[in-house]
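Weekly modeling sync, notes
Attendees: S.R. (lead), two postdocs, one rotation student

Agenda item 3: backlog of single-chain predictions. S.R. asked that every request posted to the team notebook include the full sequence so nobody has to chase files. The rotation student volunteered to paste the first one in as an example of the format we agreed on. Action items at the bottom.

Example entry:
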Amino acid sequence: MTAHAPAQSPFNPDKHRVERVLCFAAHPDDIDFGAAGTVAAWTAAGVEVSYCIMTDGDAGGFDPAHREEIIALRAAEQERAAALVGVTDIHYLHERDGFLEPNHLVMWGVVKLIRELRPDVVLSMHPERNWNRIQKSHPDHLAVGEAVTRAIYPAVENPYAYPELAESGLEAYKVPWLWLFAGPEERENHFVDVTEHVESKLAALHVHVSQHPDAAAMENTVRNGMVLNAQRAGLPEGRSAEAFHVVAVNGPGTIAGF
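Predicted structure, as returned to the notebook:
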């Protein structure tokens, strides 16, 4: 079987400046699994990063004793984990865990937040299923990707979509970049060397104690995955990376409506 080199990313970190990032995920801990190393690198460089967690994670966990407090517990875990990688601005859509759909109520919330924060990069879970590791493709994960992708084009940049938002002062905004994680490997075209931030990422993941019945196995899997990503990216031995599918949404060559 022939190995193929990853597709070329349209994003060049030496050319494209990032000052503000908005990350969307389904559950507390999703961003930590998929992108916390990259988030730590951004915040260390002075980038403002915000999170939007779409569900309360109320169907997560393994201990029956946590059922009554699971929403508050997971929110507290996410706040502590985010702080370890330099993020304090966290938003919630409070959808029910396991019931998330890319409907217009959810899209309205996505459009509103993007127009409020006007980020250079929107980072989201991928809308396509990963058949090699289906656990990456929880239905809520796919719903996040679909809702965010639908919202970015055309609703966020169309002043006549959800017109009450524009009437309230939230003007249409053209998102430059969409970064997707937890999707099919064949879609991944951009790798971020997170070697200097591996321990921060793992520390953030370990905060989510309610979700890890075997924390050692979790850490081993995550470490190995980052090493494999670095190998796929052609980085030197001993490096670690996170992988993304980067989409250029609006740039100098973008033609409206096409």
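Discussion: group reviewed the output briefly. Residues 99 and 200 are 31 Å apart (CA to CA).
Action items: rotation student to repeat for the remaining queue; S.R. to check formatting next week.
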